[in-house]
Amino acid sequence: MNLKLVSRLLGMISWLIGLTMAFSLPAAWPGVGGQEAFEVRGFGALVTSIVVCLLVGIMVRYLGRKASETLFRKEAMAIVGLSWVLATILGAMPYYLAEVKFRADSTGTPTPMGVAESLFESQSGFSTTGATVLTNIENEAWVPRCLLFWRSSTHFLGGLGIIVLFVAVLGQGSAGKALMRAEMPGPSKEGSHERMQHTALIFAAIYCGLNLALAIILRLEGMNWFEAICHAFGTMATGGFSTLDSSLGGFQSKAIEYTVIVFMILAGTNFTLMYLTLLGKPMQLLKDTEWRVYVGIILASTALIMAFGIWVSNDFNAGGLLTQSEHYETAFRDGLFQAVALITTTGFGTADFDRWNHFSRALLIVLMFVGGCAGSTGGGMKVIRHILFVKILRREVEHSFHPTVVRHIRLGGEPIVDPDLARNILLYFGLVSLIFTLSTQLLVGIEPDSTWVISGQPVSNKLIDSASAVASTLNNIGPGVGIVGSTQNYAAFTAPSKLLFTFLMMLGRLELFAVLVLLIPSFWRER
Fold it and tell me: Exposed (0-12), middle (13-18) or buried (19+): which is 37, by Cβ within 10 Å?
């Protein structure tokens, strides 16, 4: 392991994070984001954190000053995994130093964020999970507006991937290819060009362009610039952090909701396909098997939720306040929005789906394990893996009664000849299932029953809520059901549970292996 090279590149990552923090400083001034006075507490926390980022960068860069230029697979995986650990720690500093309030204790006194809460919020931002421990975020005395902007900025930085942005901005020559392969989500790591830095620049340009376009549209639809930029960051990164406690539903705007639906779908689409579409090849998008299945799942889920879920819910049209046509439109919009938000792992909310019936909520939990397309900012297990998993199972079932038949798995009419494909897909599904099961059992064991209280009333579905919280963090969703539902958050959990969730969010974002290898002693030995 070339630790000097790892150290040198981590130093540059630290500087990149500090630079990103600097863009949040203007939000401390009066009038930005709606605050009436200069935010001394938030501004000071950001400045101190920036200085720490610079000093850490100088220190680790100095340790790697004599490193060789050759970057192998082990070093690339170490840099990717450690960069996310480093980003989580550095990103948590502004919350901790500013003593951001995240909930009130039994006497009504606001409680400042501790180490566990700060790390949780930081990792949730960078991993684009969107889970939060913060309540009352519209109160500047609790959460400074400049830190709300930093919170959304972590979505922007983590959306396309810290390493992808790092390669795009700074470049690393031949090392860029190794870094991109270790960072980009999905079973296929191939870029659209041989030169990985060029690929990273294209992806970053598309990503930034969509963020800018969405921010402008949201501004025209009634948000102020602060709200528009923060929600654009949360949408295109498929994160879900909002500037309102009630999320996007607080704006009460159909135009905003439909706009965000469109951009969430784009965010969950393979960026290579969007690039080809921009080059005048839109048929490549329509021909892509994964994208067709992705859109098909969204439409089918919306139809099922309307037909068997919220459509028949007595709470949906409580009091008969909606006309029949309004009922149709609202059922469609709410069903479509939540289906898209869950499959793309964005996690924005416009309705309290905990009031929907069990069928709808069960379907939303299933969508948590689907995810967006490979090569998108969406989290989850990815649609392509589910497609290949079904094809592999079908082949193995056929092989059980026709053992002599040799049949290649086909995708889009083309045979896939990778001999390790089936093993890798099955291994990934097995690992996700194992981690989900063990983490749920661990959470049930370490979390006291007193956690499961909503609005002063105890709830009895501890196992279901625990499973939902684990699935939501492991798949980078954000909200779950019950105690972590669309109108709740993760503040009630104990510190050990929040650290577990932090680890699960990192595992999900880096798709397991880039994090798990850091725990293996032999990984750190010399060749």
Answer: exposed
